[in-house]
TrEMBL record, chain A:
Mg(2+) binds at E75, D97, I99, D100, D226. Belongs to the inositol monophosphatase superfamily. PANTHER family: INOSITOL MONOPHOSPHATASE (PTHR20854), INOSITOL-1-MONOPHOSPHATASE (PTHR20854:SF25). GO terms for cellular component: cytoplasm. This is Inositol-1-monophosphatase. Pathway: Polyol metabolism; myo-inositol biosynthesis; myo-inositol from D-glucose 6-phosphate: step 2/2. It comes from Drosophila melanogaster (Fruit fly). GO terms for molecular function: inositol monophosphate 1-phosphatase activity; inositol monophosphate phosphatase activity; metal ion binding. Keywords: Hydrolase, Magnesium, Metal-binding. GO terms for biological process: inositol biosynthetic process; inositol metabolic process; phosphatidylinositol phosphate biosynthetic process; signal transduction. It catalyses: a myo-inositol phosphate + H2O = myo-inositol + phosphate. The keyword Disulfide bond does not apply.
TrEMBL record, chain B:
The keyword Hydrolase applies. Keywords: Hydrolase, Magnesium, Metal-binding. Its cofactor is Mg(2+). It comes from the Eukaryota. Belongs to the inositol monophosphatase superfamily. InterPro entries: IMPase, Inositol_monoP_metal-BS, Inositol_monoPase_Li-sen, Inositol_monophosphatase-like, Inositol_monophosphatase_CS. Its EC number is 3.1.3.25. Mg(2+) binds at E76, D97, I99, D100, D226. This is Inositol-1-monophosphatase. One of its GO terms (biological process) is inositol metabolic process.
Amino acid sequence: MAASKSQIEELYDFIYPLAVRAGEILLEGYQNAGKAVALKDGEFYNVVTAYDNQIEEFLVEKILARYPDHKFIGEEDTHKNDNVTKELTDAPTWIIDPIDGTSNFIKQIPHVSVSIGLSIKKQIVLGVVNNPAQNKLYTAKLGQGAFCNGKPIQVSSCEHLNDANVAYEVCLLHAPKIRNKHIKRIYHVGSNARRLLAYSAVVDSLCMVAAGNLDAFHIEDMYPWDCAAGYLLIREAGGVVTHPYGGPFDIMKPDLICAGTETLRAEIEHLIRKADQEKHVGGE
Amino acid sequence: MSYRIGEEKLEVYYQVSLELVRKCGPLFLEGFQKPKTDYEVKSAFYDLVTVYDKQIEATLTDGLLKTFPESKIIGEEAMANAKTPPELTDAPTWIIDPIDGTNNYVRKIPHCCISVGLAINKELVLGIVYNPSANELYSAWQGHGAYLNGQPIEVSNAKKINQALVCYEISLIVVSKGRDKNVKRLYKLASSATGTRSFGCAALTLCYIAAGRCDAYHVENLKPWDLAGGAVILREAGGRVYHTSGARFDVMKPDCVCTSSEELAKSVIQLIEGADQISGYTFK
């Protein structure tokens, strides 16, 4: 049986002020990091890592003090585990990304978030995302709707790609092994979408679909902590989230298409399947 | 005939236009914050306009002509029904986009702005770009540096493409003419850059480079009003604005490469030349 409503409520009341505080830490870094434009490449990484660690440690410490048997899955957590992501068990498990959009964080581009998802018996029951740069705190409890700053949010009703704002992680073109797959998909989706946008912020893009700012988002080759909270927000906002080929969404291998409507999602799935059948890009 | 404009007159142009743009802030926000902002589709399904575009342009045009009756206007909405392309003369000419990023504006995505540029003797000398949704007012006039909310801004020190955050209007893939060109260029640039973004607002993208948030931008097939204001701000912040070929930038045919530095501009231009040589694409 899934978590009880009162259990979810208790955990929500517990994590909410921590998400607020985590957002304050993130905002401090966001405002200060941008001043260090002259930092060398290695130093950028150090600045980001310091805040990433600070936020994750803050959250983990507070959670363990209250719930010593809870588990964690996160980017920094995985890094400390020799880059092996732990298995998801039935135990209450916090799936945390302390800073999503690290390259935006360093540049003061306002697509940056603390993302906190909670899984119980392998089901996501809580999603809290704080984007302090835009003063937006998104929250969702399983079965109880999605909110931004306390106000209900709802996905868009857009059903046709010609009318749709779609986000895509174009940065993935930087990775040679998956470059051809993504350029073909970008070609086919972009050829039909009213707007194709790229923010390099998976969490914020998911939230923007939940809030109806975007109509759809497709992402692959990312991690559980990028998608756990955003997934629940979209579902609770009335949207659909599936595997890119239409099957069930799997948080531990979170390749997805999400959209305000099933009709729009299906159209994107069709184009992705078509792209994947195409020959490789020529040249080079 | 050539207009001789002194420094004092230029400062008057700056102060008056700055105040007019600032006064449009509340009207801009009224439309941005509305739960649902109505829009019309212009020449193509991806080209939108709202009543706010028209009202803001009318406010700016009336105010500027009242104070500077000798000047001319090239505005997006005034040009919307024009049968011939706008012509730039030596007269002081205000080049206005009342809302750059209208698609973002109607969806409450905070990358949209009022953009005003001034050309005299066909040279851009003044630029103001105001994003009330993020409380950011960028401004510059020739020889006096660039500012964000009154504070000086400067481009980043990125000189190599592998250090650069590149921006590209991926949405242009939707236009069948030029689609292959855009896909190849995106592929080449995103493969080489450290990150790629697509914000859907040209004027702001130029300002983000001016502020050191992003490092490079390439776009073609836009209009003078998309680039005029931002180009002055970027130059005054120490950045470079070229035609895509590496030739001198022409605001009336504003295909461009915009970067934080000379070295980076050369790299981007070389990558674009390389992209244009790619054959073997089979997308049709």
